[in-house]
Amino acid sequence: MAGKLDHLRNVALVGHSGAGKTSVAEAMLFAAKATSRLGKVDDGSSVLDFEAEEIKRHISIAAACHHFDWKKHAIHFVDTPGDDNFLAETRAALQVADSALVVVDAVDGVKVGTEKVWATAEKYKLPRLIFINKMERERADFDKAVREVRDILKAKPVLLQMPIGREADFKGIVDLVAFKAYTFDASGKATEIAIPADLKEEAEAQRSELLNFAAESDDVLIEKYLEEGQLSPEEVLQGLRLGTLAGNFVPVLCGAAPQMAGISLLLDAINAYLPSPTDRGPVTGVNPKTKAEVSLPPDPDGPFCAYVFKTVADPYAGRLTIFRIYSGILKSDSSFYNANKETMERFGQLFLPEGKGQKSVESAGPGVFAAVAKLKETVTGDTLCEEANPIILPAPEPPKTVVTFAVEPKSRGDEDKVYSSIARLIEEDPSLKLSRNAETKEILLSGMGQVHIEATVEKLKRKFGVEVNLKTPKVPYRETIKGRTKVQGKYKRQSGGRGQFGDTWLEIEPLPRGGGFEFVDKIVGGVIPKQYIPAVEKGIVEAMQEGELAGCPVVDVKVTLYDGSFHEVDSSEMAFKIAGSMGFKKGYLACQPTLLEPIMLMTVTVPEEFMGDIIGDLNGRRGRVLGVDADGNLQIIKANVPLAEVLHYQPDLTSKTGGRGTFEMEFSHYEEVPPAMAEKVIAQLKAEREKE
Ligand SMILES: Nc1nc2c(ncn2[C@@H]2O[C@H](COP(=O)(O)OP(=O)(O)OP(=O)(O)O)[C@@H](O)[C@H]2O)c(=O)[nH]1
Ligand SMILES: [Mg+2]
User: Fold this and answer.
1) Does domain 403-471 have CATH number 3.30.70.870?
2) Cys bridge to 257: 27, 36, 173, 559, which one at CB 3.0-4.6 A?
3) pLDDT tens, 402-440?
4) Which residues is 150 bridged to in the sheet?
């Protein structure tokens, strides 16, 4: 079994949006004969980009797992989306992978998306390979891409290969390790050719650099290299492997996925340089009972332990739970313990996910991505284990959402169905957030970007048959007062039989911001009997739900009930409630009512060169900068900005900073809307209310 584990690789394919990750993954599957034809993203034949929302957009939205065998090694991989909107999937995949294959576009070079996934791979200390793809495209530039890996990613690239020919003349690859050159046919088969004469000199220079890197990875090797000036082919491989695993440098390969160029060499490199689960060593978690740290090596004979990094909601087939196994062997038709939910879960067939499809297996062990269906309680982020050996692996915080839309059912009355269906989609996508705003009565859906929300809405329709419209959320304005007054609220109705009588005197005055509502009972001498006083307060609270200024909730008000009168027969709780409400409504308008708006605390992080621009923009949005902190080359700007001005902040920040800026915002407090603006807003709110 141990030998088998040494021959297992677990890899996440990452890179910026459109770099060619899925195409490279399809090419690997085809080269290894795991698929019978080369799947393409562009015509929807990819087995990895198979969801309707992915096919429509020609992009990856969800992480997709697959596996294949290559030269006695089992390679389990996960293809990830590059788009910012779906970065949560990518981060989850990097968390559970043993290594990363970073796909860089030879035309675009290193982009912001590459930097983001690189930083995450760095956080998890994942050994990496870089594959420079699209070598045959116009303006492909291998040297520039390598330069950017060095300058922007601050990595130490070691060239294992050199391209032969540029752009449309890209013909093949010089393998600097074996010092051989190859061309490739459409099946990916490599044919050896002579190293072109014009490349020889540079190839030799690059190879000697590569030997230096290999030798420096190990004390024994460096000694031998210094003494003999040579290393055996095995020693070169060993040195490169050690250096890659230690993160001293990153091997660089190249090719063109749709042409199958370089794919077989890439697969050889995955086997040769990327870690086995044994190389990665134990995972560390916490025993939930004793709180002691637990370390589990990737031992097939050890206690079972797996981490759920993905859940797929299916209205018909039920939930599919996808996990990475760290220790032990899991068998079909058995059960495991969910340490987070403290419950046993039974399951039937065990699967290996294969993109669109899945393969039934009897058992699976460390290093493998596996799946089971129809678990009852397990969700993404849970650790599966044995009850006798409980362990919880750390789950990352879900990312902060950056856009919010109001979702409105297309057919009225579907609100509850919309809410419950979205809640099920959140099972498979924890980067979504769902809430109801009691004041605006809207269902709010937050996510990582507009495309994220739109794709979610499409999924909602496809999976649950629920159709919704997306709207800009309403701003939850509130009202308050600036002045004070004394007012009588009197309700009297006498028309034969028993009448109604309630009479109150109220003093209405403002409270400081955030003061809410205060009711003071100053009735003396029983001018209003005790049992009617709570009814007065109730009437006022009800009147405050919809202020007389703009129909918004009223806050920060103190009302003192200081006088009144009653009638032996006609007074009732109802009469005093109406009297209180009438008094408040009348007095309210005399107290200089004014409109309040929510102010957000924004934390905007941008590279230094954008700071002036971004601060200017925040000021233009009626923002108030509270302070700026530096974090390396990044500036972290904190500002208070009215929510009404930042409902569409995310796309604006992205376009102003070329995707380099990020932000978070949270509610801070309420402030008065400037008078000139308030007039417009009040008119608008009134118009909306009339429409309803
Ligand atoms: N010319 C050329 N086009 C390529 C190559 N590799 C991929 N493409 C094309 O580039 C586009 C994007 O490829 P994908 O494989 O979807 O890229 P990706 O990195 O998976 O994209 P996301 O998952 O959406 O981030 C598609 O139109 C591919 O056909 C290549 O080597 N050469
Ligand atoms: Mg893709």
Assistant:
1) yes
2) 27
3) 899 999 999 888 888 999 999 988 888 889 999 998 888
4) none
